Amino acid sequence: MPPVISIVGKSESGKTTLIEQMIPELKRRGYRIGIVKHAHHGFDMDRKGKDSYRHRQAGADTVMIASPGQIAMIKDVPGERLEDLIPFFKDMDLLISEGFKRDSAPKIEIFRAERHQHPACLNDDTLIAMVSDTPLEVTVPQFATADILAITDFIVARFLSGHRGDREALRRN
Hints:
One of its GO terms (biological process) is Mo-molybdopterin cofactor biosynthetic process. The protein is of the alpha/beta class. It has two domains: 4-38 and 80-172, P-loop containing nucleotide triphosphate hydrolases (Rossmann fold, 3-Layer(aba) Sandwich), CATH 3.40.50.300; 45-77, no CATH class. The chain contains five helices and eight strands. A six-stranded parallel sheet has the order 2-5-1-6-7-8, covered by helices on one side. Strand 3 (62-67) and strand 4 form a beta hairpin. Helix 1 (15-28) packs across helix 4 (148-160). The two termini are 26 Å apart.
C-alpha cells in the first residue's frame, strides 16, 4: 500500500490549493499520486436518470463507468474512514487525503492567520508539519504557503525516498 499523508486545516484555509500546487511537482518527479477528498456532507456523482444512477437505484453495490482512458467507480463501503479507502490506491506511490482530521494518518496542516485565529491540529500527535502564512510556535517543521518545492522535498524525503516510484533518483544513478 502507498504511504498516506493528510492535508488538513479549517474550512477555507487553502487545502485544495496546496494539494493542487503539490501534484505537478510530485508528478514531475515521476510519482503516481492518488487523492481522497473527505466530503463531510455527502455527495452524489450519479445524475438522476443516467444509466449508472438507475443501476444503483436497482441495488448494485458497485458501479463503474468506463470511457477511453478513464474510469469512475461508485462503491458501497463500510464507512468513510481513510483506512477503508487506502486499498483502492495500491497502484499509487503516494495517497494524499484532504480532510480526515480525525484519522490517524500523518498530517500536514495548512493555517492562514487571515482566515482563522488558531490552527486545528496543534495538539495532534500525528501532525508532522505546518504550512502557514505566519510564523507559529510549533515543534514540527514549518513551511511558507508559497514554498511548494520545500514542502514537496519534505514529503519525498519522509515518505518516498527509496520508494519504487522514485523515478527521478533512478534516472540520476
